[in-house]
UniProtKB/TrEMBL annotation, chains A, B:
This is DNA-binding MarR family transcriptional regulator. The keyword Flavoprotein does not apply. It comes from the Bacteria. Keywords: DNA-binding, Transcription, Transcription regulation. It comes from Nonomuraea fuscirosea. Residues 21-142 form the HTH marR-type domain.
Amino acid sequence: MSLHEIYGSGNLRDMDEQLVVDTWHYVLGRHAKAMCALERELGDRHGLGPSEFEVLDRIVHHDRKLRIQELCEEVHLSQSALSRVVARLEKASLVSRGVCDADRRGVFVCITDEGRSRHAEALPTQRAVLTEIFADTPIPAH
Amino acid sequence: MSLHEIYGSGNLRDMDEQLVVDTWHYVLGRHAKAMCALERELGDRHGLGPSEFEVLDRIVHHDRKLRIQELCEEVHLSQSALSRVVARLEKASLVSRGVCDADRRGVFVCITDEGRSRHAEALPTQRAVLTEIFADTPIPAH
DNA sequence: CGACATTAAATGCGCTTGCATTAGATGTGC
DNA sequence: GCACATCTAATGCAAGCGCATTTAATGTCG
C-alpha cells in the first residue's frame, strides 16, 4: 500500500494503525537481522557480543569513566544484565571497575587500552554490518 | 546534528554512515521499549508472550493451517525456538499439531477456537501498545 | 534395489536476559 | 544518634533463545 493510497483512504484511524503495524514489522525485521549478523561478525572477528560492543562504544563515545547507572540509561539492558556485561568485560580486561569516592555505593567503569583498541578494531565491522542492512531503507532523521 | 547540516556537509559517506547509525539506534530503542511493554501487557492481560502472540497472529492472518516451515519464514525466530513456541501453544490448547499427509516429515499447525478467541482478545492490547510507542515517529512507508 | 545425501522438526545444551531479592551505603525524620 | 526508607550494584533463579545435533522421512544416483 502506497503512502498516497493510505492518506487518500479517508480513514485516518485505519491509516495510523496500518502505519504503526508496518513500522513495528520493519523494526522487528531489521532488529532480528542486524542482531544476528552483529552477533556472528563481532563474535567471530573480535570476540565481542553485541551488548559488550555497545557498552564499550558508549564509554568511548563519552571518552571518560562512567557510572553503571549512567550506562544503564544509554544501553537497552536491565540493570542486572548490564552488571553482568560489565563483569564479562572486566574478566576480558577490556574495562576496569572502581568504587566511586563520592558515593561509595556507585561503581565507575573505565575502559582499558586493550578495550579501546578492541573497540577500534570492531567499529568498522559494526558499521559494515549496519550499512549492509540499513543503507537501502534508513529512517530519514527524526 | 540536523538534516540540513548533514546534507550540507559535502561528505556523503559520513552522512550515510550517520543516518545508518541513527536508524540502528532508533530500531534498538523502539524494539526494546515495545518488546518490554508487549511482554508485560500481553502476559498480564492475556497470558501470552510476544512470540506466542506473533505466531497466533500469523496463522490468523493467513486463515489456514500452516506448516512449521512456512511460519519460520514469517516469524523472526530460529527453527528450534519456533518449535518450542508451537509446543507451548499446543500445551495451552491454542493450536494443534498434525502430521502432513503429503510429506510425513512436515507438521501442520492449526489454530483452535480457543486460540482464535485469545488472539482476538489480545489484538487490541497489542495495537494499543504499538500505537503508544510508534504513533509519534512511524516510518513513512517503505 | 540399496547406499548416501538432504530435509523437517524436535531436543540437548550453554548463554543471556529480566525479575525479584540481597548486601551494603546513603539520606531523612524524630 | 538512631531507626527506617531509599538507593546502587550484585546475585539467585527461571525462562527463552540460537547453535549443534538427533530422529525420522524423503530424494537421488549408481
